[in-house]
């Protein structure tokens, strides 16, 4: 039973990023989640391909890059060249999401689609056979530390049901936003596989205990 914890570096100390990456790695992180924001698609700005490149130099863990930007196609190749393992594109950010997914996969990395809390799953259902991941935002995107939106549990559950009913749909379900020791079990029980956690992990001395606790809660919820 696969459960993966992905620390979000949005909540890390940017002045000590290498230290925080190493601490999370030693604590049992399975991959790292990197948010790239342009201040247009979401009302915040963060990181660039150079941060992906820097992280690639200090960790062998997979890098899960989440594009919260307009015109995502322009960033895809630079981010792949920087060392990303997975690139996630918002369905709402482009009129040509299928083209974006195809571009990502043509460059030899995993491709995923992201849906905001208000975006119906039907808008991306045609992509299910060709994606590796689908990220369900459980908060409104743009800022870390927000509260989990309870109604997203049903959305995750419905997505898992759709996945199980189609023989050629083999994507992983990722969740991002408000993931902590109180919300992870319900997301895991609903069918999520990858859990992005930021403020629950970073800024605390017991990060290993927190990673272990999240994994334990998620695995138990899936049984």
Describe the structure.
- The protein is of the alpha/beta class and 223 residues long.
- It has one domain (4-222): Alpha-Beta Barrel (TIM Barrel), CATH 3.20.20.70.
- The chain is built from 7 helices and 9 strands, in the order βαββαβαβαββαβαβα.
- It has helices spanning 17-27, 49-58, 73-82, 97-106, 152-165, 184-190, 207-222; strands spanning 4-7, 32-38, 45-46, 63-68, 86-90, 110-115, 133-137, 172-176, 194-197.
- Strands 1-9-8-7-6-5-4-2-3 form a 9-stranded mixed sheet.
- The longest helix is centred in the C-terminal third of the chain and has 16 residues, at 207-222.
- The protein is globular, with a radius of gyration of 16 Å.
- The model has no long low-confidence stretch (mean pLDDT 92).
- It is an enzyme of class 5 (isomerase).
- Its EC number is 5.1.3.1.
- Substrate binds at residues 8, 66, 142-145, 176-178, 198-199.
- A divalent metal cation binds at residues 33, 35, 66, 176.
- Belongs to the ribulose-phosphate 3-epimerase family.
């Amino acid at each position: 039973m696969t459960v993966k914890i992905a620390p979000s570096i949005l909540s890390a100390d940017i002045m000590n990023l290498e230290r925080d990456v190493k601490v999370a790695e030693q604590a049992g992180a399975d991959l790292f989640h990197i948010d790239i924001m342009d201040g247009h698609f979401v009302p915040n700005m963060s990181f660039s391909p150079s941060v992906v490149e820097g992280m690639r130099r200090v960790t062998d863990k997979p890098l899960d890059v989440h594009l919260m930007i307009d015109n995502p196609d322009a960033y895809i190749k630079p981010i792949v060249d920087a060392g990303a393992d997975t690139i996630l594109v918002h369905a709402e950010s482009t009129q040509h999401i299928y083209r974006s997914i195809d571009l990502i996969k043509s460059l030899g990395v995993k491709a995923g689609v992201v849906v905001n809390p208000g975006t119906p799953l039907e808008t991306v259902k045609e992509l299910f056979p060709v994606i590796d991941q689908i990220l369900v935002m459980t908060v409104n995107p743009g800022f870390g530390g927000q509260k989990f939106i309870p109604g997203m549990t049903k959305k995750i559950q419905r997505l898992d049901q759709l996945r199980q009913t189609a023989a050629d749909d083999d994507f992983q379900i990722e969740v991002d936003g408000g993931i902590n020791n109180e919300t992870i079990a319900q997301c895991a029980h609903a069918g999520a596989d990858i859990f992005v956690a930021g403020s629950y992990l970073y800024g605390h001395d017991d990060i290993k205990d927190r990673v272990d606790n999240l994994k334990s809660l998620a695995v138990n919820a899936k049984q």
